[in-house]
Amino acid sequence: MSSFRTSMTAACLAGTLTLATVAGAATPSAAPAAAQSGEAVIASTTVTATVTKIDQKTREVTVKTEDGKESSFVAGPAVVNFDQMKVGDVITAKYAEALVYEVKKGGTAVAPETTVAGGAAAPGAMPAGAVAQQTTVTVLITAIDTKAPSVTFQGPGGKTKTIKVLHPEKLQGVKVGDTVQVTYTEALAITVDKAPKK
């Protein structure tokens, strides 16, 4: 989802949903107070574009971003209110990533589990598209280097990876043999607003 065009296409294929619902789906649940946990927003981007052309038969939409670049995409059948979109309407796309982790005592590595959420807008409303994907994996801590500082993890497939720790204080109370549950969330939401009155 590195480009506006890719983002638009992904959202249209995903279905329709309001921004409020996506915001809720993109927020990882808080870990218990007793657990070592942390959360960081990795990226958050908003792109605005104006609809310059619409083909109702092929469902192809051409938009122009604020910097003058044009992109085209085809709205899939999941976009139920496509006929409400007009030339001059303003499309806003929001993309966000979040990472949350929780350290647990003991346990074993667990294979990744991914869930995807989507929905539909009310009939007659302006089109709105969204998709949220959340992946959770549990890894086993096999080594801790407090001097580096770094932590080595072993995944469910047996592969290991060493990463540097930005905040060494987070290692207090963490031991080899503990597991870390990592949840990574991506959310993309699009809304269409009517063309501004002149």
Number of separate helices: 2
Which of globular, elongated, flat, extended, rod-shaped describes the shape? elongated
Main β-sheet: number of strands, strand sense, barrel status?
9 strands, antiparallel
As residue ranges, the low-confidence spans are 1-35
Structural class: mainly beta
Q: Give the % helix.
A: under 10%
Q: Give the helices and strands as they follow along the chain.
A: HHEEEEEEEEE
Number of domains: 1
Give the averaged pLDDT, no decimals: 74
End-to-end C-alpha gap: 34 Å
Which value, in Å, is the CA radius of gyration? 21 Å
How many β strands by DSSP? 9
Structure in words:
The chain is mostly beta strands and 198 residues long. The chain has one domain (4-193). It has helices at residues 4-14, 19-25; strands at 36-55, 60-65, 70-74, 90-104, 110-117, 128-145, 150-154, 160-164, 179-193. Strands 1, 2, 3, 4, 5, 6, 7, 8 and 9 form a 9-stranded antiparallel β-sheet that branches. Strand 6 and strand 7 form a beta hairpin. The longest helix has 11 residues, at 4-14. The model is unreliable at 1-35 (pLDDT under 50).
Give short descriptive properties of this protein:
198 residues; mainly beta; 9-stranded antiparallel beta sheet; 2 helices; disordered N terminus
Structural topology:
Elements: H1 4-14, H2 19-25, E1 36-55, E2 60-65, E3 70-74, E4 90-104, E5 110-117, E6 128-145, E7 150-154, E8 160-164, E9 179-193
Antiparallel strand pairs: 1-2, 1-4, 2-3, 4-9, 5-6, 6-7, 6-9, 7-8
Short description:
The chain is mainly beta and about 200 residues long.
